[in-house]
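Open question from group meeting: does this chain pack into something compact, or does most of it stay loose? Before anyone orders reagents, we agreed to write out a predicted structure and look at it together. Recording both the input and the output here so the notebook holds the full record.
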Amino acid sequence: MPRASAIPPRSDVYWEVINERETPPAHDESRFRSMAEAIPVQVWTAGPDGLLDFVTEKVAHFFGTPADAILGTGWTRFIHPGDLERVGARWAHSLQTGTPYDTEFRLFSAKDGEYRWHLVRAHPMHDASGRVIQWFGSNTDIEDQKRLEAARDAALAEAKRANKAKADFLAMMSHELRTPLNAIGGYTQLMLEGIPAPPNEAHQNYLRRISKSQQHLLGLIEAVLLHAKLEAGKVTYRLADITVSDVLDIVEPLTGPQRAAKRLRYDCSGCDAYLVFRGDREKVVQILLNLLSNAAKFTPMDGGIAVTTTRVGTDIMAMSVRDTGLGMSAEQLETVFEAFVQFDSSLSGEHHGTGLGMPISRDLARGMGGDLVATSELGIGSVFTLTLPLSSGGAA
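Structure tokens returned:
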């Protein structure tokens, strides 16, 4: 088998550039060849005109062709036809400007019988006057990487397509389900108001149960639809300056009956009511309603819930909801923000939800530039902390 090709004789100027020591060129040629063969990629050199004048045995082996047949422009016949024009133009640009060559294209592998992607690089070597006297290049096989990237891109495209299909389906189903449920709620309310005839006490009890179930189903549908919108990035935020009292004044009376039913102590004295932060009021209220409702749901009779606010540095507001409830194990804490995860709510006797409250709340917090995190200890209770950016003013 012919050897890869000896490096042609160089001028004294060349060897002064490549090695300042006065070493015989033959020794440097041998050392260079040994180093080139030891490198785990294909190595080659070309003259100032861009014609190959040396290739390693790895190059010859890859192309399944004697090295002498590759020199000059012989290597171009192994380039994929679809890449040839682009590769030629890029190589010509480097030769003309003396800039490093760095591109990706397909080369034919004799062993595999197919074209494989390579990262091909070449660096120019200059003499004292700045003239290019040699190009040192390498070919690195990146076919496996390219296939992984292609598989990843295909999977990502499929996931996006599936996610869009899911969001479209949920939006359609949400509309189709809400229409009859709203009708059920409307007729139920009319019957409770005595239209067309006053119901007796037993009928009123049944109608109230129907109304409660109707509201529960509507809540589940809205949660699933919002989760789909968040995943699809279709939720919009109307950010504005908000004071802590703005949101607490809304959520406290709404969650009051739930706390009163279990005689839960409620303390918000640790809140700075005049602290101003940035957020979407409606979405902040939704997050706090979920946090306070969950705290009441998982806290035994005569327990307590406390809400506090603190500044984190100069630009973050942290609002924490702490309860004296059941707490969570380390395993539960790891999954509390995962979609459709439900914990035992036997303390409340309420309907099970969708398991979307916490993941939706965290996504909403992050969509406003903040976050929602949790800490917990079994038998002690849990703390959920909402962080949001402070207003530039900081206080009302």
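Observations to bring back to the group:
Residues 1-24 have pLDDT under 50 and may be disordered.
The longest helix spans residues 143-192.
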